[in-house]
Design a protein that fits this description.
With about 250 residues, this protein is of the alpha/beta class. It has one domain: Rossmann fold (3-Layer(aba) Sandwich), CATH 3.40.50. About 50% of the residues lie in helices and about 15% in strands. It has 9 helices and 7 strands, in the order βαβαβαβαβααβαααβ. It has a 7-stranded parallel beta sheet, sandwiched between helices. Strand 2, helix 2 and strand 3 form a beta-alpha-beta unit. Helix 1 crosses helix 9 and helix 3 packs parallel to helix 4. Bound molecules: NADPH dihydro-nicotinamide-adenine-dinucleotide phosphate (NDP).
């Protein structure tokens, strides 16, 4: 199913060149949105994404760095116009039990997964309020809800996104701006392929549907939440996890 939107609104997808983000970028592009995808350092993947998707608005900056986000967004807005829809998708893991976790592992994960949500949302929310329309959709994780061994940093960041989004949803509700969260379970991407096969096998065995999720399911939900007609869904967290955690 593809459906062209009536108004070609501007979408920014952080970490939009690989994995879940690339599927979100491609889906939104296919629906007729003007899409900018950002990434951190994998130039090769970004080039491949550009060629495959036909999206040429691709920008490299660290979403954990406020000034870099401001500069990146200025370039995006110059090329495409004001940002109507922000998808906070960029994320990393640096797993370790807490008794072995370094401050660097903590900081990197909080910076990329949570500071980024403040940075990007803060920079676009004033414009959204003024224009009376906006959609902010952030990608959390099942592990922000359930907790996960070796992921105190990641779980804290992903749970933080949920609290942030509920509060922001209340602040902007009367301004035509909705704020929602998607909490995926295990989805087949590079991040999950990096898990040791014997551990991944055990993880899949515990998922009631007995398989990993696919990126399209997340992308379709983003499109639903971004829809102009959908101004009543806000402050919500959507679980897409094959029944693994029923919140
Ligand atoms: P990938 O590792 O496949 O892709 C991550 C993307 O984020 C890449 O484009 C990467 O850029 C970008 N990125 C990483 N760090 C930064 C940074 N500091 N600044 C800007 N961009 C950055 O991730 P997934 O697609 O698997 O995950 C996407 C999101 O979904 C993440 O937030 C993740 O936590 C969440 N999630 C994923 C699950 C899964 O099963 N895959 C499950 C639950 C949640 P580059 O290519 O340059 O490295």
């Amino acid at each position: 199913m593809t459906r062209k939107v009536e108004k070609a609104r501007v979408v920014v997808v952080t970490g939009g060149t690989r994995g879940i983000g690339a599927a979100i970028s491609a889906t939104m592009h296919s629906f007729g949105y003007k899409v900018a995808a950002t990434y951190m350092g994998n130039d090769k993947a970004a080039e491949t994404f550009k060629e495959n998707s036909g999206i040429d608005a691709v920008y490299k900056f660290d979403v954990g760095d406020y000034d870099a986000c401001a500069a990146g967004l200025a370039l995006i807005e110059k090329k495409l116009g004001s940002v109507d829809i922000l998808v906070n998708n960029a994320g990393i893991t640096r797993d370790s039990f807490l008794h072995k976790m370094t401050q660097q592992q903590w900081r990197e994960v909080i910076s990329t997964n949570l500071d980024s949500v403040f940075n990007m949302s803060r920079l676009v929310v004033e414009g959204m309020r003024e224009r009376g329309f906006g959609r902010i959709i952030s990608i959390s994780s099942i592990n922000g809800l359930s907790g996960a061994m070796g992921q105190t940093n990641y779980s804290a960041a992903k749970a933080g996104i949920i609290g942030f989004s509920k509060s922001l949803a209340l602040e902007v509700a009367a301004k035509g701006v909705t704020v929602n969260v998607i909490a995926p379970g295990y989805i087949e991407t590079d991040m999950v392929r990096a898990i040791a096969p014997e551990i991944l096998e055990k993880i899949v065995a515990k998922i009631p549907v007995k398989k990993l999720g696919n990126v399209q399911g997340i992308a379709r939900l983003v499109a639903f939440l971004a829809d102009e007609q959908n101004g009543f869904t806000t402050g919500a967290t959507f679980n897409i996890n094959g029944g693994q955690y029923l919140a």
